[in-house]
Amino acid sequence: MTERKTSDLSLFFHELKSPINAIINVAKLLELSLTEMDKDKIKNYISLLLSQAVYMKNLISNTLEIGKIQSGKTELFLEEFDIVELLYEIYEWTKILVATKPIEIVLNCSVKNFSVYSDPIKLKQILLNITSNAVKFTDRGFITITLVVEENFVKIVISDTGKGIKNLDTKSLFQPYCSLDSFNKKMHDSTGLGLYISKSLLDLIGGKISIESEYGRGTTVSIRIPKKFKA
């Protein structure tokens, strides 16, 4: 096993420790005091378990995807799908991720339904990576997901009221293992793969990504994908 692969695995397992420990601790609390808890407290604990499970699922997906990207073996599974329906799914997943934070998730769609021809699985992974980053770096306030239909593209904008990024360098942001916290000079458990994978997958489906951020005020990530992908 190469030194790079050993380092990748070490980082991956280190990242998994936090959600696994959280799940174990919450499960123990539920087991010890289930009869004494009210329904709201039980609901909060279950929401926490779900959020950690979603986080682990996304981490595993990213770790598997990076190997495919770097070996050029990523496959596209193109189909026509309703992008509004997909955004509602992302909206629900994001609500689970913010279960323990005072954050409101807002979904704005300019249309009720809209079909695009692309890879829904890749797009879902891209959006979950971006919203996961928004959740990670936002302590309170709002995360807003907005869909805008343009002439040849659909635009999805994800904005938050989080920490923002100091000394923004978009070229570095999209490099593998570059964590947003490396710009803010804070320690945080993060593989730094999310934005790299998102940009790589967007390149495959003909999309673009841009980031605007103001330190202390929040971050806005915009992606555009063609309405109809052409190989």
From TrEMBL:
Top-level taxon of origin: Bacteria
Organism name: Thermodesulfovibrio aggregans
Record key words, sorted: Kinase, Phosphoprotein, Transferase
Entry-linked SMART domains: HATPase_c, HisKA
Gene Ontology molecular function, alphabetical: histidine phosphotransfer kinase activity; phosphorelay sensor kinase activity
Cellular compartments per GO CC: plasma membrane
Reaction catalysed by this enzyme: ATP + protein L-histidine = ADP + protein N-phospho-L-histidine
Residue ranges of every copy of the Histidine kinase domain listed in the record: 11-229
Enzyme Commission number: 2.7.13.3
SUPFAM superfamilies: ATPase domain of HSP90 chaperone/DNA topoisomerase II/histidine kinase, Homodimeric domain of signal transducing histidine kinase
Name the UniProt record assigns to this protein: histidine kinase
InterPro entries per the UniProt record, alphabetical: HATPase_C_sf, HATPase_dom, His_kinase_dom, HisK_dim/P_dom, HisK_dim/P_sf, Sig_transdc_His_kin-like_C
Gene3D superfamilies in alphabetical order: 1.10.287.130, Histidine kinase-like ATPase, C-terminal domain
Enzyme class: transferase
